[in-house]
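This section describes the prediction task in plain terms. A model, or a person checking by hand, is given the sequence of a single protein chain and must write out its three-dimensional structure as a string of tokens. No templates, partner chains or ligands are provided. The sample shown here is typical of the held-out split.
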Amino acid sequence: MTGFGVVERIGPRFVHVAHGTIRPRRGSALAARLAFLQQALVELILRERPDVAAVERVFVAASPRAALVLGHARGVALAAVGAAGLAVHEYAPSQIKQAVTGTGAADKRQVQTMVQRLLVLALPPPRDAADALAAALCHGHAGVLAVHGDARRGRASPERAAWTRFVAARAAGAPRP
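The expected answer:
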């Protein structure tokens, strides 16, 4: 499973735009899952029209197989973002957690709760989507937002950034770390 999150920066505030998960069919071949991930990301990018993407840096996988599957899915995700011409910014998991919770050692529940509070969501987002939104917020707090949304969209609007954490191992069916 792969989480995605889209936020928009309006002045000093971040506003929730969209979030969710991309879930390939279980039991399908790796190539089919990767193709599904690629197509879903292309559609997401076309729909949301992000200015930039933020992803979590690769973590040490539990097994060589999980690391290989993670690499395949991460490559597909980065290729989809790159083909769209988006700048990609990478952050360590501890940086992302630090940015939204105040500690780099936060657990998944803490990240979900803080993302819910920071973006004023009625319900906590699913874990993978919360991680994606957390990566978006981390990037926003880093102060490296791209400013070219108006020219690309042909309309005046605050810059929008879709910042996606690609949980590639989960997207490709590898075991959770």
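For orientation: Strands lie at 2-10, 13-22, 52-56, 87-91, 160-162.
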